[in-house]
Task: structure prediction
Amino acid sequence: MSSSDCLKRLIQALRCLPGVGPKSAQRMAFYLLQHDRQGARQLAKVLDEALEKVRRCRSCRNFTEAPICAICLDPRREQSKLCVVESPADAWAIEQTGVFRGVFFILHGRLSPLDGIGPEDLGLDELERRLQEGEIKELILATNSTVEGEATAHYLAELARGAGVRVSRIAYGVPVGGELEYLDAHTLAYAFEGRRPV
Result:
């Protein structure tokens, strides 16, 4: 069965999404065309609108439609506590917990010299300026526990210490409901290193 160039381009375009391979993209394309053309039109319209209107907050670099996002403008937030995350999705996840009442700085990546990603690509000059201004009292590192995430956290800790800012790192370890026998050695090591008195 021969498919049209337009259909091939649609399938290829859907593959830009994370975790979507050729078969998944093909299923999505066929579903939208066969069962939900109105949904496809709505998706295209909303995606186009988001691409036009959504930009980075001038303060934290999170996604927003305004020059400064709602979190940064919220007077109830502790402006002296700054949590650094790798992506807007990470900030979203932390916000969903309701436990952090500070503000964020979003890197949109992590240091990775092999991929050509250095400090300038992550806005670290902007972060360093904010740390030097003196309003930030604690920098909370919430980068992922990958090699690049750890290297990024180390770099950020040095920046903060140079500015006289206290540095902390979120704890990693045993998940709620997790059983020790199923955890990898790296996770268990973090759990022991991050232990606290009871």
Notes: The beta strands are 55-56, 63-64, 81-85, 103-106, 138-141, 166-169.
